[in-house]
Amino acid sequence: MPGDVPIGIHDLSVATTQYVLTHRTLADRNGTDVGKYHKGIGLMSMSVPAADEDIVTMAATAAAPVVARHGADRIRTIVFATETSVDQSKAAGIHVHSLLSLPSAARVVELKQACYGGTAALQFALGVVHRNPAEQVLVIASDVSKYEMGEPGEATQGAAAVAMLVSAEPALVRVDEPSGVFTADITDFWRPNYRTTALVDGHESIAAYLQALEGAWKDYTERDGRKLDELSAICYHQPFTKMAYKAHRHLLQHCGHDVDEAEVTRAVGHTTGYNAVIGNSYTASLYLGLAALLDNSADLTGRSVGFLSYGSGSVAEFFAGTVMPGYRSHLRSEAHREAISRRLDIDYARYRAIHEHSFPVDGGDHFVPRETTGPYRFAGLSGHKRIYER
Ligand code: HMG
After folding, report:
1. For the whole model, what pTM was predicted?
2. Has 115 been annotated as catalytic?
3. pLDDT digits (tens, 9 = 90+) for 348-366
4. Residue ranges making up the domain that contains 178
């Protein structure tokens, strides 16, 4: 019976960009005390894509090792979550499907609800595997976070992709019932179709996140979810890493617990290592938190881990998973550290040029010189069509 089969995350792979801008460089340029970035919001650096990188190239880079390890015979569904879509109609996942030569007997779809989209994709995948446990689903969350230069959000930019293989008998994390969900119509962070940068009311967005956390937790507990002290760690959505600390303090208070800072660090400290140096990666951020936790904690076998997904607008979901025996031999810790350490430091002038770069939209041929040393690249536009190459 499908209902008896454990289902969850069988493999997890992270990719990011060619370049990195440190918060030290940003602080020196805009006259901000770097302590505000390092300590105040908990960010050290942010990933910056080269002109020939985007959500598709990061996604393909993250997914390729997953397909290489497991093959694609059982993958009939690819779900791509993003809020940095490259087309209003065609799913970005079709470009990934093509770059990775995935089977034509597959469905590919793109999902959006701000940073919550990655969790929507995971839930979609769990449903597909529940219906037929012989199938595997490739879930990809890939985003580039971009705000106007000089705005408070600028320090919380970043970019990354996470690819997850969802299957029965998962090697890493079983996703458990129930889920607590919450939706409220609020405009805390948004990006109209005519803009390349997001708009945000930063402080309102933090309040909206905490309200959504309360709502999702309430629904979760009403459905007999785990108690807070049964969770060994909680992966929170991390627009900046201090948000995870804020969220956990808020949840402790909401549940009537004293806020013990050692307890807060115990619950979230191991989830922030990748987000602190990559920045906000929107849909991927929560799962970068999981990658950091699995890669960098002491043995978590059999432990329960909580997940709080938040997407502005807003939708939140709280759920828990159980870390599977033997998970450590399936991790990609070395590759993740390499993806982060291989990035090239850029100065402010280079960052500014990349930030201001835009393609002509005249339908002509606009090719991009090779910049990325990654395995996939965006080669340019021709006749309004995007061209990718290996
Ligand atoms: P701000 O106004 O630049 O900063 O906005 P601040 O004045 O609030 O300071 C930030 C923290 O640094 C404060 O700590 C300061 O005290 C501290 P807190 O009171 O929060 O604990 N600080 C210092 N610490 C040490 N040394 C110093 C120093 N100076 C100050 N010298 C804000 C910050 C995050 C609002 C801004 O960066 C922003 O607007 N970011 C974008 C929006 C965002 O990330 N919102 C988060 C919740 S919404 C969300 O998560 C969804 C999202 O991912 C999108 C999606 O769903 O798709 C964004």
Report:
1. 0.98
2. yes
3. 999 999 999 998 999 999 9
4. 7-389
